[in-house]
UniProtKB/TrEMBL annotation, chain A:
It comes from Ancylobacter radicis. It is a multi-pass membrane protein. Part of the binding-protein-dependent transport system for glutamine; probably responsible for the translocation of the substrate across the membrane. InterPro entries: AA_ABC_transptr_permease_3TM, ArtM/GltK/GlnP/TcyL/YhdX-like, MetI-like, MetI-like_sf. Belongs to the binding-protein-dependent transport system permease family. HisMQ subfamily. NCBIfam families: HEQRo_perm_3TM (TIGR01726). This is Amino acid ABC transporter permease. It is found in: Cell inner membrane; Cell membrane. Keywords: Amino-acid transport, Cell membrane, Membrane, Transmembrane, Transmembrane helix, Transport. The chain crosses the membrane at residues 23-45, 192-213.
UniProtKB/TrEMBL annotation, chain B:
One of its GO terms (molecular function) is ATP binding. It comes from Ancylobacter radicis. It holds the Pfam family ABC_tran. This is Amino acid ABC transporter ATP-binding protein. Keywords: ATP-binding, Cell membrane, Membrane, Nucleotide-binding, Transport.
Amino acid sequence: MNYTFQFGEILANSDLLLRGLKLTILLFAIAFSGALVCGLFIGLARGSALRVPNLIATAYIEIFRNTPVLVQLIWFYYALPALSGWQPSAFTAAALGLFLNTSAYCAEIWRAGLQSLPAGQWEAGRAIGMSEWQLLRRVAVPQAFSRMVPAFTNRGVELAKMTSIASTITVQELMYEAKMLSTQTFLPLETFTIVAVIYFVLIYPGTLAAYALERRLNSKGA
Amino acid sequence: MVDVTSASVPPVLAPPVLAVEGLHKSFGSNEVLKGIDLKVAAGERIAILGSSGSGKSTLLRCINFMETPSAGRIALDGTSIGVEGRGGAITARSGELRRLRTRVGMIFQQFNLFPHMTVLENVMEGPVTVKGMNRKEARATAQDYLKRVGLSDKAEQYPQRLSGGQQQRVAIARALAMEPEILLFDEPTSSLDPELVGEVLDVILGLSKEGRTMLLVTHELGFAYHFATRVLFLHEGRIHEQGTPDEVLKNPREERTQAFLRRFSAFHF
Ligand SMILES: Nc1ncnc2c1ncn2[C@@H]1O[C@H](COP(=O)(O)OP(=O)(O)O)[C@@H](O)[C@H]1O
Ligand SMILES: [Mg+2]
């Protein structure tokens, strides 16, 4: 192989990549924090014995898990305005799509995690007069969460990678800036090598932190 | 069946603390309770006996609405819980359920302590979260009840570090911390190693000296004899025989009761 890498020119334009990186992180933060919370409620509905909430949650989860996320983002960006008359910005459409998609997966994680709690725990809480909400907050979530950390981590990693799809609807995140840069400089190999490193540096500490958190939660009992 | 209004049952003057009337409970087509009538006066201690599957747990669980009665009435101090819905089942709103459960405590066979909380936090949980007591006061209360069950030195431990007997005593302290008027025990020693049964029974016997109203499902007949003011024998979802411990345990009138007691040949009073 006799290709000479020319990283210099790409690094000289690193401000573009950093600008994109900021949007990537913002997309991730909005979609993930929203999905963790929203997923709990969808998961509760999904695990509920009440027919209507159960049916709605099931439909929601299956639709989002069984269609490509690329189609979902494009749908929110192009089809939603035609139907509702509301034109979200590319960023809003992407954030919404990623949030709703990740919520569907988080809902399943919550449902499985909460169902893994022994029935006696719910009973003990009810027997001292706790409301369902108090049970969830004080008994179920604190115990189930440590068991869900690995699954949520996987989801977070998937989401961080999925943010790159937002470039296809013109969100100027890291991947979008990288595509622009590579066509301007004719240096796709260098550009995407650097972008891959950036994604790795962004995501890997999250994975490490999750390992550490998991170890700490496991050693604390439960 | 024996006349349940016989002289052996203490006369009830004030409205009973707990009244169960015509209680039925079915799971699908399986009718588990087939009409239970029971009036409990303040300070009574009732031991409930019966073979496995006779409906003992279901009876206790209907009293604090962990199971919804299919028909009948449950009343505390003369006030009915819930309203009769379609088909006779009783429905109670969540607020009413929570008030009921602060008045009727329950201790389970499996202890069911919260594993992510220390012993002290387990006991504080009800007062703080349900009753809204401030933490300082709740801590003092919890320490008080832990002392009563002899576990002051375990306050900062996590439950899984404790023996089964100690865990069950914490569970009793957790129920007591709500200051309930009635305590329900569902086979509190059945999952304990034999050498740990005594310490739990001692605590329960201690409570009976305080004049607490208690209903206890147990297979410890010797204990039931000393503990109870009244013994019920449940058979196929009905109260088959009841009376004083001497009547039911020493001179049972019903053949089924006699047969049941014969299976416990090794018990001593
Ligand atoms: N949640 C439930 N769903 C269906 N059947 C139940 C349920 N709880 C109890 N049963 C049935 O009710 C009957 C009586 O159970 P239980 O009250 O636990 O008896 P005991 O405590 O006297 O052994 C059993 O046949 C049991 O299978
Ligand atoms: Mg039972």
